[in-house]
Design goal:
The structure is a single chain. By secondary structure, the protein is mainly α. It has a single domain, classed as Cytochrome Bc1 Complex, Chain D, domain 2. Helix 2 crosses helix 5 and helix 4 packs across helix 5.
Length: 118
Amino acid sequence: MRKVLLAILAVSAAIGRAMGQETASPNDIQEGHKLAIMVCANCHLAASDQREQPILRPPAPSFASIVQRKDVTADWLQNFMKTTHRGIDNPQGMPNPSLLDFQLKQVSAYLLSLRKTR
């Protein structure tokens, strides 16, 4: 029975990676939540328990709304956060948050944990 369970978990993880989604640990989600509040909450409603509302007016899309988009995967989120979206042609674009790879993984794990199943 244990071998069957391990096989099912391995197949599930492989399917998730193939779909651009890594399995996230509870620690990744927790650390991503902390990072989101520290780094992202000035512009986004990143967490329902953040102490202050975003100072950006109007605020950037909430994390809860971002993850409801069909095309959002862990890979997409991490790539998006690595890219600077601000420049001469887009002065109001999102600045690059300058997170390390493991931090990008944590924030994307947190974001995906907010996704509601349909």
